[in-house]
Amino acid sequence: MAASLRLRGAASGLWYWSRRPRPAADLAPLRGVLLCSRSMASKTPVGFIGLGNMGNPMAKNLMKHGYPLIIYDVFPDACKEFQEAGEQVVSSPADVAEKADRIITMLPTSINTVEVYSGVNGILKKVKKGSLLIDSSTIDPAVSKELAKEVEKMGAVFMDAPVSGGVGAARSGNLTFMVGGVEEEFAAAQELLGCMGSNVVYCGAVGTGQAAKICNNMLLAISMIGTAEAMNLGIRLGLDPKLLAKILNMSSGRCWSSDTYNPVPGVMDGVPSANNYQGGFGTTLMAKDLGLAQDSATSTKSPIILGSLAHQLYRMMCAKGYSKKDFSSVFQFLREEETF
Amino acid sequence: MAASLRLRGAASGLWYWSRRPRPAADLAPLRGVLLCSRSMASKTPVGFIGLGNMGNPMAKNLMKHGYPLIIYDVFPDACKEFQEAGEQVVSSPADVAEKADRIITMLPTSINTVEVYSGVNGILKKVKKGSLLIDSSTIDPAVSKELAKEVEKMGAVFMDAPVSGGVGAARSGNLTFMVGGVEEEFAAAQELLGCMGSNVVYCGAVGTGQAAKICNNMLLAISMIGTAEAMNLGIRLGLDPKLLAKILNMSSGRCWSSDTYNPVPGVMDGVPSANNYQGGFGTTLMAKDLGLAQDSATSTKSPIILGSLAHQLYRMMCAKGYSKKDFSSVFQFLREEETF
Amino acid sequence: MAASLRLRGAASGLWYWSRRPRPAADLAPLRGVLLCSRSMASKTPVGFIGLGNMGNPMAKNLMKHGYPLIIYDVFPDACKEFQEAGEQVVSSPADVAEKADRIITMLPTSINTVEVYSGVNGILKKVKKGSLLIDSSTIDPAVSKELAKEVEKMGAVFMDAPVSGGVGAARSGNLTFMVGGVEEEFAAAQELLGCMGSNVVYCGAVGTGQAAKICNNMLLAISMIGTAEAMNLGIRLGLDPKLLAKILNMSSGRCWSSDTYNPVPGVMDGVPSANNYQGGFGTTLMAKDLGLAQDSATSTKSPIILGSLAHQLYRMMCAKGYSKKDFSSVFQFLREEETF
Amino acid sequence: MAASLRLRGAASGLWYWSRRPRPAADLAPLRGVLLCSRSMASKTPVGFIGLGNMGNPMAKNLMKHGYPLIIYDVFPDACKEFQEAGEQVVSSPADVAEKADRIITMLPTSINTVEVYSGVNGILKKVKKGSLLIDSSTIDPAVSKELAKEVEKMGAVFMDAPVSGGVGAARSGNLTFMVGGVEEEFAAAQELLGCMGSNVVYCGAVGTGQAAKICNNMLLAISMIGTAEAMNLGIRLGLDPKLLAKILNMSSGRCWSSDTYNPVPGVMDGVPSANNYQGGFGTTLMAKDLGLAQDSATSTKSPIILGSLAHQLYRMMCAKGYSKKDFSSVFQFLREEETF
Fold first, then answer.
1. Number of separate domains in chain B
2. Cβ contact (<8 Å) for D291 and A311?
3. Which residues of C touch D208 (CB under 8 A)?
4. Where is the catalytic site (chains A, B, C, D) (predicted)?
5. Whether residue A112 sits in one domain with residue A181
């Protein structure tokens, strides 16, 4: 599917990339070509570490844009598909660093990320001067900052670039990247990230990409629980759910959770609540992100009163059979009726 | 100021009135005339009880539309202005009921409202059969239901019609009314409420008007505190507040409190946070509405986990010097720095 | 079982009755005889309304002390046992009031209590001047105050005297009564209450009996949840539960929930946690009392931050299958493990 | 001041040391002499790192028991007093480790502790095989475990032994030590800790000392806030504070915060609430310990619903002028009245 790439947001002061379905006579894609679609001959290989649910489709989008890959995953099976497609699979993060000077990492936790960078066979063992290391994992911003310091000591550049958008957006190349790092290097990061996402937002110094993601997801969790509580209370007070949703959405209670992702079955189509809370963004992942928000708040001494409680609620939901359901299932969790 | 009145929302299943600024050649006001602006000669007087900050401009808008008023307020001073304008001032709610068969009440608390209806000289002492009694106070929906029963015993009709929109909207006639009561009487209520508000939404049986308002305001309080927490955490993690607001507003954290009424000074113009949290919707009023939500939740055994905590937070803010500030000042409340 | 009755606490400023197992040569019971055990011949009948789980054994203890009873319950079956034992059963609260000038009421909710006092055939319809009406129901203190006013208008006396101790204590006559009302009438109340309980505590004006009970139970709920959280966290951090309980109990974390009623199975014998959380004080009852605390806090504008959250948690537990378990089952509720 | 030392708790299965004020004719001190007061000649030096408010009096108690000290503090001024008393001051933790094979560390945060052990001139640089390293800092148990691993690699032994009791108890040698580590080494740790504290409790594997302290203090914070809420609500409902405290203390609401450290001025003597919340255990320190509980709970996925909220409340209090007051000042924080 053809798409246009444009640098947007200059006027609004928000510097990010947005790729939208191309209008018929739009010539803008030419710019995108310059940045992302050079002929394969001219492209140097990109390292990719972590080929899980998210990393796999992200790496494939880099391939589609003509980048040869140097691949590593702790589970060899995750690499097979790429090997068969002709990409080079190596046996450690250090080996990736030896063969590529631009590396993207996509790992599940802070601990895995530290291991991949600073471990016995980690990237830092063989990283080349001037390399660009982009970490798209969602981790503690304090860890991102520490990694950046170690990377800088080796004469290389580190950027944190966590994503929002889930597996679907990873497949369609419509992720949003929130990027933290030295501003001069942002254009270089964009070249790669723009192949995997439709929004690439520069957030500030190293760690601010993580910070932006954490803050957004904390507010999302709070609004979702709030929406579920308000809808449930209204229903018990005799309101029709669809009508209540409409009233909220034209009033000051309006939020993404009420108008785009309503948690009450029957109110909207095409959202997880319409499909028994399958798919979407899992409760476990939300609990993980809220744990990061909690850690960041504790270390910066920032009060997050509702955020803390949201964290504890999703924690409990994970233990009560909701771990694999979409996070909007909090409505179902609250909804269960008292029986006597 | 000319304005157009249209019946909207039929297609969407949401039945409400909306009056919008009139486009240049719009003839629609004619409909409004039919409903709200008949010649004074043809109009029967309307009773109005409670001429406070909200009731005063609401009553004036009825006058502008040509309704003679029968006025009562427990504070005689509140009636002077209307007396001087030629409206009839009487000395008890019962007297209002004797002279008018359509009455609007706008009172601060459940207790005041019960007194005005069921007190020694209350409306019910002299209410005429077939009267339409519309209560625009924000009170416990359980109280609305009880009043409705008593009114019904007298052969009259009761509707709850709390407003959202504040003093400014009351003045400009742009309030939103959320109306609960018998559906057949809604058109009659609209005739009057349409003179004071631009949205008149039918919510269902008696009490659902209050329910809708309470649910909206509870979700609003939760989203506002959540926005304040997320913005504060982001700032402490190094993000620029304007940039963070933009990221939230294009992401799943988006809500009315983040995109229309941002609580962080410097992010938006024309909102209370740009004016030292003056004006707007006071913390005391929010605490009151959350108290109603709490009571309704307790009596219906609905869990409102974040809603309860939001209530307690606004309760504390009232005691810590924030009672007269806009409710978005929760950002300032959280923002205070630890000092050692 | 013989027991001694003594007026205690004068020195300590706390005026309450305590009946303890009688030491061998203790002559104190003589006082008890004067107050509670006069010969049956000299005793005037006592009214008793509400013969449920608690009221039934309470009424029997009055019988044991020689008081003839005038009985009423909305469910005739609840009266049979007493009728067969020769007590007089009547057909309304008004009839009780006609035949007895001391009445004890023991009802499940505020609504039932208001009905029994102020209903069409309520006590107030036929109450005699000078009657002593003691309400042992646990209800909103604001309702107690209103009832007291109405009772006073009729020339009678009202006292609130809620109990703590459960069905077991009701059977053994070891309830604690917390009494609010005019101090001069406390001795008269004691005469009756001392037959049903081992502690009768004077708390102050009408409503303070309820207030004391509500405050105690709110603190109890908070400490219990806190104990469950601390024990669970400690266990997950590798501590032996019995050892942790001992450390808490010799330290500043010590509380009734940790040292007398520990919620962790295996730590103590003879408590509900040792018996699959059967018996004890049900989660539903705790949720009810927390609802009263919530209502009182809202109406007095008192912040109860942890109290609110405790309320919501017990509310949720009622909906998640814990309604009939002892309230210490919150440990089990928190304990459920996340599974992936 | 003479004191007796006894091994207690064997019967109860709880293995800890307790030293109590000596009864007149008590010969027990002889045992203490064997363990803690050998003649100076026979004693090898003990290292002590961190001579702050707590470390200073702790080190002095070791001196009183005849242990020569090897001293280091990052602030040279903190060492002067000891130098003047003839103790040996060195210039790095490594130097301490070179000269002493038993070292006690008492530091403010996890970061400081890691630096002292693993830093460029840290203990581990020169630690001797078989050394016993006891860390009395209150830190994250996960950090204790990591340090233990590193220490073990060097052939030495690490134990965590955080204290409770504050500066007063440190001076009088009445601290409680909660000790985690290999059980065989507990006796060796006792020899030193028994000179500084009256209770030395063995908690289990490394990290459990920290875990026990964290769990106790979390429960303490929860009970204290609960007590403050219950007392405040009761007072607003018309109860006398002293009477309410007595009722709670003879009922199921009883806890250390209500019966030993009541937060309401006028209820008890000799506690911080009787002295404008001066002295005692500062709000800042409580907030720090709750931060550790939060971190531990997040990493072990343990729900701490009230614990999280208590953390956030103490966090807010630190920002609202309560940072230097005793943590029982939460009563004052809640007590502030709403004004309109």
1. 2
2. no
3. 237-239
4. 213
5. yes
Query: Which residues of C participate in the annotated binding site for NAD(+)?
Result: 44-72, 107-108, 112, 138, 288
pLDDT digits (tens, 9 = 90+) for A264-281: 999 999 999 999 999 889
D200/D231 same-domain check: no
Let me know whether A240 and A191 are in one domain. no
Q: How far is C290 from chain B (nearest CA, A)?
A: 9
Residue C220 and residue D252: Cβ atoms within 8 Å?
Answer: yes
- Separation of alpha carbons C53 and C285, rounded Å: 13
Q: Does A340 fall in a domain?
A: no
Backbone dihedral region of C326: left (phi > 0), alpha (psi from -120 to 50 degrees) or beta? Answer: beta
Do B287 and B169 share a structural domain?
Answer: no
Quote the ipTM score. Answer: 0.86
Closest CA to C285 of C307, C261, C311, C267: C311
pLDDT digits (tens, 9 = 90+) for C23-47: 333 322 333 333 444 344 468 999 9
Cα-based distances in Å from B336 to B236, B321, C265, D321: 12, 13, 44, 10
Measured CA to CA in angstroms, residue A138 lies from A53, A106, C288, C312 at distances of: 14, 8, 42, 32
Nearest CB to D319: which of B309, B318, B338?
A: B338
Residue A26 lies in a domain: yes
Is B340 inside a domain boundary?
no
Same domain, D145 and D71: yes
Beta carbons of C49 and C106 less than 8 angstroms apart:
yes
| C70 phi, psi to nearest 5 deg | -110, 115
A214, A237, A251 member nearest B164 (Cβ):
A251
CA-to-CA distance for C329 and C225, rounded, in angstroms?
Answer: 9
Distance of CA D19 to the CA centre of its chain: 17
Residues of B in contact with A166 (CB under 8 A): none
Q: Which chains does chain A touch, 3 or more C-beta pairs < 8 A?
A: B, C, D
| D309–A303 C-beta distance less than 8 A | no
Is A298 labelled as part of a ligand binding site? no
Whether residue A159 contacts residue A185, with contact meaning beta carbons closer than 8 Å, is answered with yes
Mutation target among D314, D315, D316, D332 for the B interface, most CBs of B within 10 A? D316
C145 with C166, same domain? yes
Query: Which of C181, C205, C229 is where one domain is finished?
Result: C205
Residue B214 known to bind ligand: no
Interface touch B253/A207, C-beta < 8 Å: no
Q: Among B205, B233, B250, which residue terminates a domain?
A: B205
Q: Which CATH number belongs to the domain containing residue B191 in this structure?
A: 3.40.50.720
A101 part of a folded domain = yes
User: In DSSP terms, which residues pair with D175 in a beta bridge?
Assistant: D197
Nearest CA in chain C to D251: C216
D57 and D182 in a single domain? The answer is: yes
Among candidates B318, B336, B340 on the partner chain, residue whose Cβ is nearest the Cβ of D284: B340
Residues of chain C neighbouring D249 (CB-CB closer than 8 A)? none
**Structural domain range at position A298:** 212-335
Contact A337 C320 (CB under 8 A): no
Question: Tens place of pLDDT for every residue, chain B, 340 residues?
Answer: 333 333 333 333 344 445 443 333 322 233 333 344 434 446 899 999 999 999 999 999 999 999 999 999 999 999 999 999 999 999 999 999 999 999 999 999 999 999 999 999 999 999 999 999 999 999 999 999 999 999 999 999 999 999 988 888 999 999 999 999 999 999 999 999 999 999 999 999 999 999 999 999 999 999 999 999 999 999 999 999 999 999 999 899 999 999 999 999 999 999 999 999 998 899 999 999 999 999 999 999 999 999 999 999 999 999 889 999 999 999 999 987 655 4
Distance CA A131, CA A8 (A): 27
Q: Which of B229, B301, B303 sits opposite A306 (nearest CB)?
A: B229
Do C59 and C177 fall within a single domain? yes
d(CA B242, CA B248): 10
